[in-house]
Amino acid sequence: MQKTILLSTAAALLIAGGASAQESKWNIGAGYTYFDASDIELDVINVRGGYDINQYFGVEGELLVGLEDEDLSIGGVPAEVGLDYGLGIYAKAQYPLAEQVSVYGRLGYAYHEFDASVASASFDDSSDAFAFGGGLEWTIAGPNAVRFDYTRYEYDGDGDADAYSIGYVRRF
Question: Is the pLDDT confidence value at 2 over 80?
């Protein structure tokens, strides 16, 4: 349900049209991320902030917060797994395709804290990851934009995760 509302809102914003891209250096945004780690699917809120060094390069920080744990069964025993939070820092290469649309690639480092419970036992774990991905940003009105992206997290010996995000960006 949340995914449907968020995607419908983003589609309405895109249809409403856009204005010219701003020459802003700083940006902040928030959105929804679908996080898939080894067949564990999590709903996550993302908050991102960045600085454009120039038209083609920037830096970006990211905070991820899990919304709820996923219920699963391990050998018939109920279990839950969730993302407590994640932090990331990225170098960002971007290229304007048109006045209102740009594509970008990100390369960086991420740290994630996970929690799990099996029967009555609880566990916490953390993992470092090499992170990379890319996306599209569409300026819809003045300093406001919608962003769609994909990020791949490759953990140190702990598997991989894929994240698909949609979010709002405000430039200033």
Answer: no
